[in-house]
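Sequence in, structure out. Go.
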Amino acid sequence: MAQLDKLLSHLVPKGGVRLRLQADRKPWLELRAGGTLDLLPNPLPGVMVDVLAADVVPPELKETWQRDGEVKFEYEFGGYAYRMHLSRYKDNAQIDVEHLGPARPKSAPAAPSAPAPAVKAAEAVVAPPSADAKAAHGHAHPKPAAKHGRDVEGPRSHPLAERLFTALLAQQGSDLHCTSHEPPLARIHGDMKELEGFGPMTPTALLEMMEVLASRAMWERYQERFDADFAYALESAGCRLRVNYFRDRVGPAFVCRVIPNQIPDPDKLGIPEPVKRLASLSKGLVLVTGPTGSGKSTTLAAILDLANQKRKDHILTIEDPIEFVHPRKGCLVNQREVGTHTESFKTGLRAALREDPDIVLVGEMRDLETIAIALETAVTGHLVFGTLHTSSAIGTIDRIVDQFPSDRQQQIRVMLADALKCVVSQTLLKKIGGGRIAALETLFITPAIANLMREGKNFQIASAMQTGRSYGQRLMNDALVELINAKKVEPMEAYLKCPDKESFIAACKRAGIPFDLRLGEVEG
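Output:
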């Protein structure tokens, strides 16, 4: 029984000729005798009206409703026929139900059905919500049967998803955002833009598509926790997608990030030679840091691929989820996914010490215990690569030390000074002419810098970096100035992304690049 039927059951007994539902209004009847009658004491939110509409759309019209936002059809309930007109206005659904009279008799005679008994308005409010209503309001819903072969391994596809992914790749987008009651958007060269040819996404259409794309385990996890991360192989386009399912205040949503099957070339990424040589280290800790979406995974994948080509070792990765797939070249590569192959980063990292690795990649160092185990792994003679969400190389050292209790911080400074080999901090900028490019700040731990770390004098490290460029040291401001001089990045774009704006302005003036911050333009 559709939830809308609860309201339809009032129409005939109360002398109505039409039922109307609009967002943020009380459902009302237009009466045969004239006037109107409110059916519920409270207005219905827009999301509930959309859910009620999607619940009665016939299967053959679902695609039209999702695409055009308007459908008309006849509907039968309680022995009566109704004409349904569903439409959207400003992304909110509207329902117009006209009473046509008794339903036509079926070909097979059956006992006449009496109108459904009228229910009280209060009962309509507290009636158990449908699966879509639960989804829209963030509640768990019954686990549906598997669709499209989700019980077996192999590619899973959905017609609407294929159209969305094709449009995303055709415009060279990096991320796809699908949110309830909004048209799909793509991040193209750093900006969010609507994908043409698609209307607002309903919770029903989103849930159906999300269920098909996810494996059974990931779909059950999403139902239980309202969050799920996994990788999806888009074989038709020769790439993978890092997918995140979630729910917000209006319903289900997901985000996909494009991950090429081909591991990127370090030279095309602009990775400097000293950073490439990190792939040849025998032990130590190497950190790649930056904000979310700054390309940390891409940089790490390129460095790891260099090690895979040049060395004869065992590489072990712990990721959430697995992004770039590393085939065996010179090294044996084992890639483990958090939640699928190991419980957590710390569990997988603790087990790694018994798996005879030479190189360990930790996808994300999220908590104190993971950082501590990674540090111990590096100290015991392994090469460990990891990522952190920090905005500068020097700030990364402070972040790690501050994770620990004050009585352990001096010990951690000593361990970090011995184990840390390099911190690469990066940010992505919009490139002149389209596309994006990374600016890299590189901090290589020299004996002088290691001594400053032991003594807790991190504020002096910037000066040591300025005088140690022969070691590969490079401050973020210097990297940004180089990109401006090379005509790859606009000065204002660099200014907006730099962590220390005052020193950036001074660096620009030293390099002869004055610009007016009020206008964002280079001065004449």
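Check: The chain has a mean pLDDT of 83. Residues 415 and 446 are 15 Å apart (CA to CA).
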